[in-house]
Each structure stands twice: as C-alpha cells, then as structure tokens.
C-alpha cells in the first residue's frame, strides 16, 4: 500500500478453537427472549434458537390444536350417547347417583415463592403440575376442603442464599417480594395467558395473590383466608427426620412449589426454618411399601406429593396412599436410564400443557 492510499480497517480474526481441545470458542448473541447480550457456547446458542422456534411454532398453531381437541371431545360424547342408546345396562350404570364427596378438614398450600430460581420451561412444568393437582382433588371422594396457591412472600429463593446457575441459555427473573402479584410471576403468567386464566375458576382452589405464605398467619383477614397459627402449619420436606404419622383436621400442610432438577439442596427446609415452621416428611419407608426400596430420588413433584396426601384422606392407610402417588419407575431395580432423574418433573408436563 502506498503512502497516499487510505488505510482500511481489517476485520478481526475469528477466534480459533483451543489447540488439542476440540472446544469451539464461545459466541455472543442477543438473547431472543430477554433481548440481553449474552455469551454462551455455540451448542447452547443453537439449542436456544431451536427452543424459541419450537415455542413460536407451538404458539402459532395452538388455536388449530384446540379446535381439533374440541372436535375429538365432541366425537367421544357422540359415541358415548350411541353406546348408551344401544346398551341398556350401560345406561342403568350411568343413572346410579354419584357419592357426594366428604371434604377432609385440613388444607394444603402450594408455596409458589421460588419463581426466581426456575427457568421458563421449569415454570411451565410447575404450572402443568398444578393442573394435575386440581384434577386429583376435584375427583377425590375425600378432597381437602381448601387448596391454596400462595405467591411470593418476604423470603425468595435468593433471599435464602440460593442462586440460579450461571447459564446464558436460560434467563431468571428478579426475586419477587410480598408486594409482587402472583399473576406477575412466571407460573401466574402461564396460567393467565396460555391457559386463559382458568385457574381463577377452579372449585376448591384459592389464589393468594399478595403476601405469600406468611400472610396465612400474619394478615389472614386482608387475604380473606381462614386464620391459623404458625403452630398449625407444617412444611413438607424430605430433609427432616420428623415423619408424619397421620394427617390432622385443622392443620395446614405446605408443599414447596418448585421444579429445579434437584439443583437446590434443602431449599424448602431452609425456608421452613427461617419462617419458624414445623417440618415433616412423608413416610416413604420400606415398612409402608411392602418391603420395597426406592431406587430413585425421594424428591417428588408437587402433584405426586398431593396425590399421596389425598390417597391417605381416602384410605387412612399410608401403604395404599404411597402406591397411588409414587410412580412405578421409582421402584425399578434395573439400572436407572440416563435422564431418569428428570423424568419425574417432566412427567407432569408432557400431556397437559394445553389443558392447564
């Protein structure tokens, strides 16, 4: 280049993989969900792009899928009517009056105050689990007389000392407070948006929008809830030696509402301790399981724990209750397949994402 020619800026050399490692250099992209500039591996960026495209496609076709589902339900009802018309015995069976449910005089609270520790997919999975929970209570012969979904309170997951794992592929919201609406959290947004707010109309379900778990005993009048004392509140967690012998009328049983792939050890126990609540665990023991030993984690999904509790209200027998709530794969004596650790949390969201 001669002295009279202007200098042109040369493009920077692309980063090369580290010699001998085979590892591609990280890439910097604009996160398609948050709009933030993030750095991640090339593989993580591809996975994120595929996930966003999958979600967009699912959102674009949801009305068509729902129309197909309505048509299928209509066809099933038509077939049922034809069957009844041609089968007098079936008609007589359907005319048998249903047994009126006998509510059990305790209540269950799902603590949804861990929004700051979950990814969007995990929050969606939790929302699906709440749908299963509602179905179990609604169809039970001895349902809990009240089930409460409580939003964030003073103690968020991060306030308890837990931090979400560093990952550019996922985004985590800021910690909610007792002044944050349950409907602003990710689970609430899912139920309000994709599920069209159906949970507001669920019978036997109360939504505690503000104040979190603490408002049950601190400001029950403001939340229009039955008053209770802290002594009557029991936080269910596997991280304690105190085992429940039976469910008691008048007590409030709390289930930690989080899907975390077992990342946060002792999370619910630490929250219960910080709030000064009694902790107890379900009697998941070989003596109640016909001598069987669980071959997988004892960490259960929200709907599995609730199914066990409802099983006890119906049978007053922990062995029968545990058989109803625990999936068979928990007792598989063969080697656990890769990815089985996440199967319990994914099971609740695989089929009902559209109906929750």
TrEMBL record:
Q: What is this protein called?
A: tRNA (guanine(9)-N1)-methyltransferase
Gene name, Swiss-Prot/TrEMBL:
TRM10
Gene3D superfamilies xref list: 3.40.1280.30
UniProt cross-references to InterPro entries, sorted A to Z: MT_TRM10-typ (IPR028564), MT_TRM10-typ_sf (IPR038459), tRNA_m1G_MeTrfase_euk (IPR007356)
Highest taxon, organism lineage: Eukaryota
**What are the alphabetically sorted keywords of the record?**
Methyltransferase, S-adenosyl-L-methionine, Transferase
Q: Does the keyword Nucleotide-binding apply?
A: no
- Which EC class does it fall in? transferase
Source species of the chain:
Malassezia caprae
Listed under GO cellular component are: nucleus
Segments forming domain SAM-dependent MTase TRM10-type: 92-333
Catalytic reaction(s) noted:
guanosine(9) in tRNA + S-adenosyl-L-methionine = N(1)-methylguanosine(9) in tRNA + S-adenosyl-L-homocysteine + H(+)
